[in-house]
Amino acid sequence: MVSRRLGRREGGKRKFLAIIDDTPECGRAATYAAMRAAASGGGVVFLYVIAEGDFQHWLGVEKIMRAEAAEEADNRLARVADEMREKVGVEPELVVREGKVQEEIHKLIETDREIAILVLAASDSSEGPGPLVAAVAGRSAAFPVPVTIVPATLTDEEIESLS
Questions:
Q1: How far apart are the C-alpha atoms of 42 and 124, rounded to whole Å?
Q2: How far apart are CA 13 and CA 133, in angstroms?
């Protein structure tokens, strides 16, 4: 059970959470989340999760790999944030976590009581819509806030008209 959301009546603002990773569709989710935040006077949070299982090496190698993963996460978030500042005019909150993606999403939602909507984007791959979208469709993730899924085929103009 997630803690009660901190709404506008309580002095909070509705935040849209988008997951940033190395998939092409995450840009669609970031764009929609930023545009919805701008249109509604809310905020946007971008989360990058570093998979914890990637560091099962000797201590020295593990430290180097962990530092490289953190640098990649920071760089990816910075690129997406810069694009959203320029395109939409919003200042996103950037969060990097290490762990399992679904668990870290839940933890962040529990920690930040202003996060009210999780925005995901479906992949147009023949392999399926992507693991997070599939988890939502299969209900295994059961995220504690509403989830918006952005179709992969939408253009920026179409996303703007919907937000």
A1: 29
A2: 25
The pair of structure tokens assigned to 34 is 């930023």
What is the pairing mode between strands 93-99 and 15-19? unpaired
Q: Which of 67, 71, 76, 74 is nearest to 21 (CA)?
A: 76
pLDDT band at 141 (very low <50, low <70, confident <90, very high): low
Order across the sheet with 93-99: list the strands: 93-99, 43-51, 15-19, 115-121, 147-150
Residue 44 near residue 33 (C-beta atoms within 8 A): yes
Residue 47 and residue 35: Cα distance in Å, rounded?
Answer: 17
Q: What is the pTM of this model?
A: 0.87
- pLDDT of 61 strictly over 90: no
The first and second tokens of residue 145, run together, are 């806030």
Closest CA to 97 of 46, 30, 48: 48
Mean pLDDT calculated for residue range 65-84: 93
Full set of structural domains in the chain with CATH = 8-162 (3.40.50.620)
DSSP 54: G
